[in-house]
Amino acid sequence: MVTLPMALLAYVIVSGQLALTKPDFSLPFGPRPLAFIGLMLAIGLLCSWLGTFCWNQASQRLPTVLVGPLIVFETLAGLTYTFMLRQAWPPLLTLCGIFCLLVSVVGAMRIKPKPVVVKVDTAVQEK
Asked: Where do the structural domains in the chain lie, given as residue ranges?
């Protein structure tokens, strides 16, 4: 519920900054308002709504053991897209973090759960 007011506050701050530094920039929708509005609607519907719908469906159908690694791979996909867009390799510290994430997911996937056997006391059960 806090997302919309924070986004609105950020939009007002950026618009104010643009008005001060670039007075010729057409506010509030930029130089191509139809493209801006169309893109924002597409991003809002496809990324937010459809993405949330798909995530909810996947997390309901998959066991918890698989949903955790999905969260990690979502982060890794975001990092991959970012560094591809920058056309640069990640710094060494970021590569170390990525390596640690991958090792932890592989390690978690290799763990085999053992069933827990619980003895039921018949004397307690009869009371």
From this structure: 62-114
Instruction: Print the SS3 string covering 22-67.
Output: CCCCCCCCCCCHHHHHHHHHHHHHHHHHHHHHHHHHHHHHCCHHHH
Q: Which residues of 5-26 are buried (b: 16+ CB within 10 A; e: fewer)?
A: eeeeeeeeeeeeebeeeeeeee
Length of the chain: 127
Q: How far is CA 12 from CA 15, 29, 96, 114, 121, in A?
A: 5, 12, 38, 55, 67
Asked if residue 78 lies in contact with residue 90, where contact means CB atoms within 8 angstroms, the answer is no
Task: DSSP letter for 87, please.
Answer: T
What sign for the dihedral angle of Cα 56, 62, 64, 66?
negative
Quick: pLDDT tens for 57-114: 988 888 877 788 888 888 899 999 999 999 999 999 999 999 999 998 888 888 777 7
Residue 29 in tokens = 């929708």
Find the helix packing angle between 51-61 and 64-86, rounded to 10°: 150
